[in-house]
């Protein structure tokens, strides 16, 4: 019975070196990324029987949900940091009033 088991870390013959396990396309086009997801889902549906494909889809949806939550948390952290009140101390801004100060100014004090 142990003869049918594959050693850990070895991919099945159907997916070894196939388009299912390759890296994502190197592009900034969102439509290309979505198309790649659907292309790989179609390849998986042709390669694996019904129950295995259902497990693949569930795992993909969980992974997508996890990635979306991580991205939402990263964006919320960025917004939270921008909304925090400024720290006390010296403030430097691009619109600060720039005045030449001369300590030895005999003119009247303002």
Explain what you see.
The protein is mostly helical and 110 residues long. It is 47% helix and 0% strand. It is rod-shaped. The N terminus is likely disordered.
**Strand segment tally:** 0
β content, as a range? under 5%
Which residue ranges are poorly predicted, with pLDDT under 50 across at least 5 consecutive positions?
Answer: 1-9
Q: Provide the residue-averaged pLDDT.
A: 78
Q: Summarize the helix and strand pattern as letters.
A: HH
Give the C-alpha Rg. 29 Å
Number of discrete helical segments: 2
Report the span from N to C terminus: 96 Å
Structural class: mainly alpha
Largest sheet: none
Helix content: 40-55%
Tertiary shape: rod-shaped
Summarize the structure.
By secondary structure, the protein is an all-alpha fold.
How are the SSEs placed, and which strands pair?
Elements (H helix, E strand, L loop, with lengths): L29 H18 L2 H34 L27
């Amino acid at each position: 019975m142990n003869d049918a088991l594959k050693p850990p870390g070895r991919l099945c013959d159907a997916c070894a070196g196939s388009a299912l396990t390759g890296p994502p396309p190197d592009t900034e086009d969102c439509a290309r990324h979505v198309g790649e997801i659907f292309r790989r889902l179609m390849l998986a549906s042709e390669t694996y029987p019904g129950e295995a494909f259902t497990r693949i889809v569930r795992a993909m949806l969980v992974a997508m949900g996890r990635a979306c939550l991580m991205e939402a948390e990263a964006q919320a952290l960025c917004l939270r940091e921008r909304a925090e009140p400024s720290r006390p101390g010296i403030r430097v801004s691009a619109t600060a009033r720039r005045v030449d100060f001369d300590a030895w100014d005999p003119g009247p004090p303002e």
